[in-house]
Amino acid sequence: MEILETQNIETETEGRLRRKLVDEVSKVVVGRAAEVNLLLVCLLARGHVLLEGVPGISKTLLAKSFSKCLDLKFKRVQFTPDMLPLDIIGGYIFNLKNREFEFKEGPIFTNILLADEINRAAPKVQSALLEAMQEIQVTVEGNTSKLPFPFMVIATQNPLDFEGVYPLPESELDRFMMKINFGYPTSKTESDILERNLSELDLEQISPVITSAELNDLFEKTKEVRVSKDILHYVVELGENSRSDSRIGLGASPRALVQLVHVARANAVLDERNYVIPEDIKLLASHVLSHRIRVDRAAVLKGLAGTSESVVKELLGLVNPPR
Amino acid sequence: MALNLDLVLYGLTVANVALYVLLLEGFVRYRRAMKTPKSLTSQEAFAFFEKTYKSVFPEDRTFTWGEAAAKASGIVRLRMFEWQSVQRSVRQYEAYRYGNIAAQDVDAQPILNLALALRKRA
């Protein structure tokens, strides 16, 4: 049967807020609408994102532009091997004036923290982020301080670096709600980027498009999104299939499935729905599950499996969504 | 052995009648199948679309309603179809299945029309 290019019939339901944000970021960052959308979904689902891509493809610029659009506080930390937990979390410093130790907040006290090249830092520093990412608080010398709300870590890592890096352990990878693979832009986008860069890029062009009240409203709406039993059953079945598939050494954890449901709810809100549909799950499953599952090396060598992303896509092709 | 012409003619007539009966039966069945159901509930209309879609795209087993509608939109003869109303119908049905609207609030006619148009292509 002859099939022409599939028509885009989704535009009517595309959320206005989503479009507003993408348009605003696009003033500075070209051709990253899908990534902006995923960042927004993750923020609403109260998760953290791992961006993986080679240097020079506007990961940092995107994170900065994104936080500016939402009028959120942004800080960037360049991770290095000689870094200490104190450099991120902060610590007690002796104040000579009043002769007392005072807590000096580290850069983690912000809304959006860009952890650049996270895999360059020693495991001690990486693990310092664990409590912050999971419980949205930090504990220094027995004293616990809450982090601002919303709090989101956008970490980046370069997949080509092998020397002097400390790969993130499974426990920390599991803390990232999503992993977004940053590929090279298409040639059309690349020529747009070159054209755009002929004049100096100015982040001042970007102005907040979502107020904090609107953002809080979106957080509230996300909590109220309905998830039917059929959808939950579908997610469970995906998880079970990932664990029983012989090509997968480590399947999706229950936490991964919980987070998949959360991002699906956030996506529903951005589509102006108050219920999750199977398409939300299918759309986001690869970003939520692929960095959590381990493909069996023997299966890869035998040519039975490719990357974890392709395995997740195959899983989605095996499990029937509810209708 | 002498050929009995009457017997041959009789045999040919019977075979001819049987052939016409079979053709007529096939035609009646086809007409019955092609007849637009007068009153279908939204569930029946979507089940009918599902059945048709599976017969047209047997390789696609894990589709969602949105994906099925988008894929059907790529078929040549359906390019001029009322896609916005199909999309609305899909959204309404999803709102019924996973949200909280009543089944009678779903306008399933566009999806039924799509199913019939798809079946003509099959």
Helix content range of chain A: 40-55%
CATH T-level topology of the largest domain in chain A: Rossmann fold
Please write the string of helix (H) and strand (E) elements of chain B: HHHHH
- The fraction of residues assigned to DSSP E strands of chain A is 15-25%
How many β strands of chain B by DSSP?
0
Shape call of chain A: globular
Largest interface: A-B, 33 and 31 residues
Q: Give the strand order of the largest sheet of chain A, numbering strands 1, 2, ... along the chain.
A: 2-5-8-1-9
Short description:
The complex is a heterodimer of chains A (323) and B (122). By secondary structure, chain A is α/β, with parallel strands linked by helices. Chain A is built from 13 helices and eleven strands.
Question: Mind explaining what this structure looks like?
Answer:
The complex is a heterodimer of chains A (323) and B (122). By secondary structure, chain A is an alpha/beta fold. Chain A has 2 domains: 13-197, P-loop containing nucleotide triphosphate hydrolases (Rossmann fold); 225-316, Magnesium chelatase subunit I, C-Terminal domain (Helicase, Ruva Protein, domain 3, Orthogonal Bundle), CATH 1.10.8. Chain A is 42% helix and 15% strand. With 122 residues, chain B is mainly α. Chain B is elongated and about 80 Å long. The mean pLDDT of chain B is 84. Chains A and B meet through helix 11 of A and helix 2, helix 3 and helix 4 of B.
